[in-house]
Specification:
Layout (H helix, E strand, L loop, with lengths): L3 E7 L4 H11 L5 E8 L5 H8 L4 E3 L2 H9 L12 H7 L9 H22 L6 E4 L8 H7 L8 E5 L11 H8 L3 E8 L9 E8 L6 H24 L3 E9 L5 E9 L2
Parallel strand pairs: 1-2, 1-4, 2-3, 4-5
Antiparallel strand pairs: 5-6, 6-7, 8-9
The structure holds glycinamide ribonucleotide.
Glycinamide ribonucleotide binds next to helix 1, strand 5 and helix 8.
Length: about 260
């Protein structure tokens, strides 16, 4: 296999992006980062990209939401089908207020349509979310993934999923009183941090730990884990399979999982 082309989206400091860039440059990953995009004009991750001569762009989600609320025309892409998205998404429960769902997914599609336009000059094999703090809707995901069993959007999450999805994985781990914390790399699906798990690393939490020390311990492991998972992807070592389990009481559980092939 030749070098894979990796696109990256960041919202903040971009230390995970740095780990991936470094692993590519050192030859540990047979790949190269071909763009860095952000929803945050001040994300330091953009500077990291620039300093490695990687093209960058910013897509201001907040500005798009503001224009949508002002009633600006032509923001929502023509191929956006609200009913189809509502059927697919698992970010919100079906009992959620319809007006809230309409607004959320319309703004998302407006931002994601613009994001896709920004990304379109670059072909890529894998899209890594490296501290990208926006959920992706089915509108975007279906345009990036080749097929349900051939996903290509990866995320790193600061907790041992499926525990503590959401925006503050290490904080939630700490406040719960967990004795072990960790991080997870997974593929993106239509839910929040619910896609097939690729890899995880764990660390011990001692009585001396604070939220800050937990974040430090976790981030160090994230850098190793993310680079490892991207390397395995580049080596074609994943198989994504659908499993069907028979549970007690005749219940059935279907789950999409990642198998690492040697
Ligand atoms: C990391 O801890 C990552 O796991 C987390 O944001 C941080 C980004 O750090 N991501 C999420 O919480 C995604 N929901 P970085 O910008 O230094 O890579």
């Amino acid at each position: 296999m030749g070098k894979i082309r990796i696109g990256a989206l960041v919202s903040g400091g971009g230390t995970n992006l740095q780990a991936i860039i470094d692993a590519c440059e050192a030859g540990r990953i047979n790949g190269e980062v071909v763009f860095v995009g952000s929803d945050n004009p001040d994300a330091y991750g953009l500077e990291r990209g620039k300093s490695h001569n990687i093209p960058t762009f910013v897509l201001d989600y907040k500005e798009i939401a503001r224009r949508y609320d002002e009633g600006s025309e032509g923001l929502v892409p023509e191929d956006f089908n609200l009913n189809e998205i509502l059927k697919k998404q698992t970010l919100f429960s079906v009992s959620e207020e319809p007006a809230k769902l309409t607004r959320f997914f319309s703004i998302r599609a407006a931002a994601e349509g613009a994001l896709i336009r920004e990304m379109s000059p670059y072909s890529f094999d894998l899209l890594v979310l490296a501290g990208f703090m926006r959920t992706l809707s089915p509108y975007f995901i279906d345009k990036i993934n080749f097929a349900p069993l051939d996903p290509r959007i990866m995320n790193i999450h600061p907790a041992l999923l499926p525990a503590f999805p959401g925006i503050d994985g290490y904080g939630d781990t700490y406040r719960y009183g967990c004795k072990v914390g960790g991080c997870t790399v997974h593929f993106i699906d239509y839910g929040e941090d619910s896609g097939a798990i690729i890899g995880q690393k764990a660390f011990e939490i001692t009585p001396e730990d604070t939220i800050e020390t937990i974040k430090e311990k976790g981030l160090r492991l994230e850098w190793e884990l993310y680079a490892d998972c991207v390397r395995l992807f580049a080596e074609g070592k994943f198989k994504v399979v659908r499993k069907l389990y028979n549970l007690k009481g005749g219940r059935k559980l279907q789950r999409t999982v990642v198998e690492i092939v040697s």
